[in-house]
Structure formats: C-alpha cells, structure tokens
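stage 2 :: seqdesign
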C-alpha cells in the first residue's frame, strides 16, 4: 500500500509541477509525502479502501497463480477471443486497464480515475498545497490542481472496466453460474464480485466486502444470496475459503445446505442497504437485519 501511495503521489507531483511550468523535486518528495501523511490529509476513506482492495486483489491473484496445475489459456485471454464482439472488446479493455496499473516489478498501481471525484479533488489540492514553494505562486498551484482534477476521465477506472465486462457477459444468455465458477477458479475476485452482485441485486462493493470479510459462514450465505447452485457454491467456497482463511469447505457447505430462506432474505435485505448505513450500524454495535 505504501508503494501504491508513493507511486500515485509521484505521478500527481509530476502532473501538477508540469502544469505550472516547473519540475518535480525528487529529493523533496519523501518530505512532502511524510508531511501529507502526518497532517491527516491522506486519511481519505475512499483512498484507503481502494488501496486495500487493490492489495487484496493482487494477493489473491498471486495465490492462484502459484497453485500450478495444468496449463491453460487464462479466462481473460479466452474472452478476448470471444465470438461476441462486446465481450471481446470489454475483455481487451480490462486487460489493457490492468496492464496500466502494474509497475515495472508487477506490483499494483492506482490511478486518479479509480477514485471518486471528491477524493480526487481533495488529494490533488492537498498535494498542490504541499508542493507550492511560496505564497506568491499559490494561485498557480491551485489552478494546476484544478486542471489535473478536471482532466481525470472517470470512465477509464479499473472498476468500470470490470463492470463493463460483467455487463457484457450477463447481457446475453450465458451460463452465469459457470462464469462465476470459471472466474472463481482463476482468482478473478473483482469479476466474481461483480457477477455475484448482479445476481443478488447488491452493489459490487457490497459483494466484495462480503466475499473478503464475511466471517465464518459468510461465503455460504453469499452463495445463497446470489442463488447459486450447489456446484457453483462449492467452487466459490473452496477457492476463496482457503484464500481468506474462513471455515473449512465442509463446514461452509453444511451451512449452505442448512440456511433457511427467511435467514437468507434477512441477510440479503441488509446487504442491499447503502454501504455507509451498513458500516454505521456495525460501528454502533447493531446486529445486521
């Protein structure tokens, strides 16, 4: 996460200083970043959440890549060659988008477009304020920050690329459970979250929260909320249960088999609530539902 943040701030520093006709002082970057962190200006919930999610996605993908087994063409590569032009184009766009978010060592990066507009404005102006060398050029740095923020193309976010592919996949009459199985089997956590979200009528962020931090029995509940059959549920539980350290496959499947419809309905109603409301309820100590 520290590397992601340093990379983002470094890129933004170059953009801001270029906009005012100056150059980034590399020797000062460490001091500026430390000052921003000490001031609390980087304590943005959206920024922290994004970095955590990207770190989790990278960790999961790396874990699955290390599993070995028979070599086969990765799911995204297969989808790039799909007969459906919309699916092929969306898969290629996701491959390109992910490629831009890897540094020279293959580690994850984030871009401004991955944040929401409020976090972008706050982050860019905070960095511009820290970069401004003296009072008589403050207006120039503030204007540069506005320029950088205005140039962000939020439609190019990585989440949007995943969402576009998920939409293309479910738009036509494909076997959605098979898609979830295939995505789960390759550690495509973000795509799994989006596909499940569409089946359960919850937000992708809610599906992600539940997928990665649902606690014991949570994966079984998520599978039931998405209306998955037993085979697809077993695949999801086996793949992600071992990765995130929840209960055994046997225990989760027993939970999946014994959940009654009323319990699933209550849980689903809770997860369909706005995320901020759910977080507030949890922090206040109220049980879900």
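stage 2 :: out
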């Amino acid at each position: 996460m520290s590397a992601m943040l340093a990379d983002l701030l470094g890129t933004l520093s170059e953009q801001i200083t270029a906009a005012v006709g100056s150059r980034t002082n590399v020797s000062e970057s460490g001091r500026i970043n430390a000052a921003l962190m000490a001031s609390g200006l980087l304590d943005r919930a959206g920024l922290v959440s994004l970095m955590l999610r990207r770190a989790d996605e990278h960790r999961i993908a790396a874990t699955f890549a290390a599993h070995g087994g028979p070599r086969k063409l990765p799911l995204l590569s297969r989808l790039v060659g799909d007969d459906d032009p919309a699916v092929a184009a969306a898969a290629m766009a996701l491959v390109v988008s992910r490629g831009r978010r890897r540094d020279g060592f293959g580690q994850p990066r984030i871009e401004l477009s991955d944040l929401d507009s409020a976090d972008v404005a706050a982050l860019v102006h905070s960095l511009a304020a820290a970069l401004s060398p003296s009072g008589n050029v403050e207006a120039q740095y503030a204007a540069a920050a506005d320029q950088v923020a205005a140039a962000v193309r939020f439609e190019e976010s990585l989440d949007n690329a995943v969402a576009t592919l998920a939409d293309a996949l479910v738009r036509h009459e494909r076997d959605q459970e098979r898609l979830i199985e295939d995505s789960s089997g390759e550690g495509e956590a973000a795509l799994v979250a989006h596909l499940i979200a569409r089946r359960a009528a919850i937000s992708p962020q809610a599906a992600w929260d539940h997928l990665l931090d649902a606690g014991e029995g949570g994966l079984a509940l998520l599978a039931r909320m998405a209306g998955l059959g037993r085979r697809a549920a077993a695949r999801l539980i086996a793949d992600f249960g071992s990765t995130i350290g929840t209960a055994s496959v046997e225990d989760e499947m027993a939970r999946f088999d014994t959940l009654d419809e009323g319990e699933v309905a209550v849980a689903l109603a809770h997860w369909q609530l706005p995320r901020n409301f759910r977080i507030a309820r949890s922090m206040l100590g109220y049980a879900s539902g």
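stage 3 :: structure notes
- The mean pLDDT is 89.
- The CA atoms of residues 87 and 150 lie 30 Å apart.
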